[in-house]
Amino acid sequence: MNRAYHRRVAFGSELGSATSGDLLGTSTVLVIPVGSTEQHGPHLPLDTDTRIAEAVAREVAARSQDAAGDALRYLVAPPVAYGASGEHEAFAGTISIGTEALRHLLVEYGRSASRWAGRLAFVNGHGGNVAALTAAVELLRSEGRDAAWCSCTVRGGDAHAGHTETSVLLHISPAEVRFERSRPGNCAPLVDLMPSMRRGGVAAVSEVGVLGDPTTATATAGKHLFEEMVTGGVDRIARWEPRADGMLT
Fold first, then answer.
1. What angle do CA 3, 69, 150 make, to 5 degrees?
2. Residue 243: exposed, middle, or buried by beta-carbon count in 10 A (0-12, 13-18, 19+)?
3. Helix (H, G, I), strand (E, B), or coil: what is residue 165?
4. Which keywords belong to this entry (predicted)?
5. The dihedral of CA 62, 225, 162, 3: what is its sign?
6. Phi and psi (nearest 5°) for 19?
7. Farthest CA pair distance, the chain
8. Which end of the chain, N or C, is surrounded by fewer C-beta atoms within 10 Å?
9. CA quadruple 17, 20, 26, 29: dihedral positive or negative?
10. Phi, psi (deg, nearest 5) at residue 166
11. Which residues have CB under 8 Å from 8's CB, separation 6+?
12. 3-state DSSP assignment of residue 96
């Protein structure tokens, strides 16, 4: 069992297990994981993006709480587990709600949560959600709500179900990785694949649904990649300097 993922932050720091009374008289930063349910090759679970976003959000909240002490309360919300994943719909198991539906969901989520939470930090685990997050957070901010978002990114990571995501899953959820099924996919730069993907989705460029090489993944690499995601999130939330599109830099 990996302590980084399964670590439970202090009592009352997960929204799902808190009571309304727990939130009285507190200044709350609500950290919301946003993921997807989509194919991740023959070896990774469909909830890979959600798992990563939730694990990062929990650790970011725990470290931010340690730094804030009693000045703020960081609460981790149950994840938004469905996203804009139309590029993966040629593969079984994918469930996409599309950009517009996700945008509406995030806007109404933010409007409701802002009635009691002072600040909203969306932590995104799926690239296809960026357009919806940008539009939703821009609108929330224009309405005077203190919302922003950041992504679970690393420098030099591959695009989908390759070395990066497989390594992180080997670190946070090793029992869910069918490593013996892993196969290299299309390792070309994403910018070169985008024209074909816009026409035919991931299936147009990768028969196995993988963009990268998962066979090189290791739990040790995953530990370092996960740490990079977490420290990046902690730094961005601590600075809280949203750009015009609401993304934390």
1. 65
2. exposed
3. helix
4. Hydrolase, Metal-binding, Zinc
5. negative
6. -110, 165
7. 54
8. N
9. positive
10. -65, -40
11. 14
12. strand
What CA–CA distance (Å, rounded) separates 86 from 95?
8
Q: Contact 16/50 with Cβ under 8 angstroms?
A: no
As a three-state string, the secondary structure of 4-60 is: HHHCCCCCCCEHHHCCHHHHCCCCEEEEEEECCECCECECECCCHHHHHHHHHHHHH
Say if CB 131 and CB 138 are below 8 A apart.
no
Give the gyration radius of the chain's Cα atoms. Answer: 18
Angstrom distance (rounded) from CA 83 to CA 122: 13
Q: Which two tokens stand for residue 71?
A: 């000045």
What domains does the chain contain, in order, with CATH numbers? 3-155+228-239 (3.40.50.10310)
Q: How many CB atoms lie within 10 A of CB 136?
A: 26
Query: Model pTM?
Result: 0.94
The tokens for 177 are 């990785």
Q: Using one digit for the tens of pLDDT, what is the confidence trace for 132-177?
A: 999 999 999 999 999 999 999 999 999 999 999 999 999 999 999 9
